[in-house]
Amino acid sequence: MDMSRVADQGLVLLGCGKMGSAMLAGWLEHGLPAASVWVIDPNPSDWLRAQGVNINTPLPEKPAVVLVAVKPQMMGEALPAIRALGGGGTLFISVAAGTSIATFERVLGAGTPIIRAMPNTPAAIRQGITALIGNAGTSGSDMTLAEDLLSAIGDTVRLQDEAQMDAVTGLSGSGPAYVFHLIETLAAAGEAQGLPHDLAMRLAKATVAGAGALAMASEEDPSQLRINVTSPNGTTQAALEVLMHEQEGFPNLLHRAVKAATDRSKELSGG
Ligand SMILES: NC(=O)c1ccc[n+]([C@@H]2O[C@H](COP(=O)([O-])OP(=O)(O)OC[C@H]3O[C@@H](n4cnc5c(N)ncnc54)[C@H](OP(=O)(O)O)[C@@H]3O)[C@@H](O)[C@H]2O)c1
After folding, report:
1. Residue 2 pLDDT > 90, yes or no?
2. How far is the CA of 72 from the centre of ligand 1 (A)?
3. Which of 8, 42, 118, 214 is deepest in the core (most CB within 10 A)?
4. Cα separation values, 126 from 30, 130, 165, 177, 227, Å
C-alpha cells in the first residue's frame, strides 16, 4: 500500500461509523500518520478519539483524498462540508450504496475525479470485497490509490460500467446476508434431523466458513470442488439432487433473490 501521496497531502474521512472506522483502522495500521487524517463526524466514537487524528477541525486546502462514508440518506446534509474541495486535485471516493457518480458530480463539479465503491460487511474483519468504478475525471493513478485505500478492508475489483453497480449490490453487497441465512437454515435443518441446536449451529458455521476458505484457496473452481466430494449414489448426491433442481433448488431461488436485490438497488438509486 503506497500511502505517501495521502500522508503528504492529507485524507478527509466524511462519516466514521462502521465502514469508516474499519478503513481508518487499516490505514493507520499500514503506517498512515494519524496527523494526515481529518475526520468529520457529528458523534466521534471513543475509539476514534483515541487515534490521534484531526476530528471536526478545519480541513486542509488540498487533501489528496476525500472519502465519503455516510449513509446515503445523510448525504444531502453531509456533502456541503466538503463541496469546496471539488473541482481541484482532490480525489473523491464514496462507499455509499445507491448514490450515483452523477449525484456527486452535480455537487462537486463534473471535472472532479470521483470513484464510487461498493464494499460489503466482511470489511469489518478485512475480508470484504469492494467493486470500484471511476468517472471520466479519474486517472489511472487515482484508481490505484483508491484500490490501495480500499485494500485496507479486503479485496478489490474494477467495474467496466457504473450500471454494473446494481448487480454488484445484489451479489456481493447484500450477499453476506444470504450466507448468514444459509447458515441459519442449514443449522435448523440439522436440528430437524435430531441434532441439538448448539451443535448444529457450530457445524453449520464451520462448514460454510471452511468451504468458503477452500473455494478461495483451491485452484479448482467451485463446480469441480463440488464434483470432487460427490460420490455416485452417495449422501452428497442425494442432497444435491434437491438443491440443484432447476426450478425448486438454488439455481432459480438465487436467481430470483439476486434479481430482487438488483431491482431494488435500481429503484433506490432512481435508475
Ligand atoms: N456497512 C456495510 O456493510 C456497508 C456496505 C456497503 C456500503 N456501505 C455504505 O457505507 C456507508 C456507511 O455505512 P456504515 O455502515 O458505516 O454506517 P454508519 O455506521 O451509520 O456510519 C455513518 C457515520 O456517518 C456519521 N454521520 C452522520 N451524519 C453525518 C454528517 N452530516 N457528516 C459527517 N458524518 C455524519 C454517522 O454519525 P451518527 O451515527 O452520529 O449519525 C456515522 O458515524 C453507507 O453509505 C453505506 O451505504 C456500508
Report:
1. no
2. 8
3. 118
4. 13, 11, 21, 17, 30
What pLDDT is recorded for position 271? 52
- C-alpha span between 170 and 173 (Å, rounded): 6
- What atom in ligand 1 is closest to the CA of residue 14? 33
The number of the ligand 1 atom at minimal distance from the alpha carbon of 19 is: 16
Q: Ligand 1 centroid to 75 CA: how many Å?
A: 10
| Per-residue confidence (pLDDT) for residue 230, from 0 to 100 | 97
Residue 270, pLDDT score: 74
Question: 38-81: per-residue pLDDT in tens?
Answer: 999 999 999 999 999 999 999 999 999 999 999 989 999 999 99
Q: Report yes or no: 133 and 116 within 8 Å, Cβ to Cβ.
A: yes
Burial class (CB in 10 A: 0-12, 13-18, 19+), 64: buried
Q: How many A from CA of 211 to the centre of ligand 1?
A: 31
3-state secondary structure of 232: coil
Print burial letters for 4-29: b (CB count within 10 Å at least 16), e (below 16): ebbbebbbbbbbbeebbbbbbbbbbe
State the burial class of residue 169 (Cβ atoms within 10 Å of its Cβ: 0-12, 13-18, 19+). Answer: buried
CA 98 to centroid of ligand 1, rounded, Å = 13
For the chain, the 3-state helix, strand and coil shares in percent, each to the nearest 5, are 55, 15, 30
Residue 36: pLDDT band (50, 70, 90) is very high
Task: Give the residue, out of 23, 53, 71, with the most ligand 1 atoms within 8 A of its beta carbon, to mutate for a pocket test.
Answer: 71
Give the residue, out of 39, 74, 156, 179, with the most ligand 1 atoms within 8 A of its beta carbon, to mutate for a pocket test. Answer: 74
> What's residue 31's pLDDT?
93
